[in-house]
Amino acid sequence: MGERIAVGDKLPFFVYDTPYSAQNRFRDLLQRKSPLVLVFMANFGHPITRTFASRYANTYGSLRDGGFALVVRSRADKLSRSIGPNTLPYPLLCDAEGVLYEHLDIPQSSSALMTYSLEGWRILREAKRQGYQATKGQMQQLPLTLILDKDGTVLFCHYGASLTDVPTDCEAMQSLLEELELVPDMPELEDLDYENFPELEDADELDEEFDTFH
What whole-number distance in Å separates Cα of residue 37 and Cα of residue 22? Predict the structure, then answer.
């Protein structure tokens, strides 16, 4: 078992498989879009993982200032039967053997009471209605959320206390980036060059005319 990673640590570069491509370099993924939100969850067949994977896909456009990738404990070759390169708008990293999970010391638990939140119970209850059957006594893989810069340095780290203790959707990821001030700086109003923005001058004139009538 490895050690828990923390802010300031560096995630080692590695090679990963997706359902639609093999031997991808993690370094390249970081370079394409950073900061990168990296969420580790259980296998892709787990109802909670599937629920959040769908949420992330549906709200992916809300993540304007960073990238996102989901890591699952599933075999890429099995997922390739149903997940093609255009199925999800973000990369799906497969780590069936749990190499990364062990390296980062992401815990598992056999206690359903400890790992299921109220939302988790709701998702699981609905999945059972649709025919899902959980293996009795199965170890539950808890999640981990990281934000990394282009060099793999950890800017944010959160080990989930329950299976749903991850960002709700990509809008929540964007809000987190903003709270951590990991988004591009916006110019202050007083720093704007009015000569390049004549419409702002017109707006000021309109404000002055409006004031004269009130």
Answer: 21
Q: Is residue 74 part of a domain?
A: yes
Query: Does 210 fall in a domain?
Result: no
**Peptide linkage before 35 cis (omega within 30 of 0):** yes
CATH of the domain at 31: 3.40.30.10
The pLDDT, as a whole number, for residue 113 is 64
pTM of the predicted protein model = 0.84
> The domain containing residue 134 runs over which residues?
15-187
Percent of the chain with pLDDT over 70: 84
Which of 27, 10, 44 shows the shortest CA–CA distance to 157? 10
Helix then strand count (H, E) for the chain reads 8, 9
Using only the alpha carbons of the chain, give its radius of gyration: 22
What backbone torsions phi and psi does residue 127 show, to the nearest 5 degrees?
Answer: -65, -40
Dist. CA 141–CA 115, nearest whole Å: 9
SS3 content of the chain, % helix, strand, coil (to 5): 35, 20, 45
Residue 9 domain flag: no
Number of domains in the chain: 1
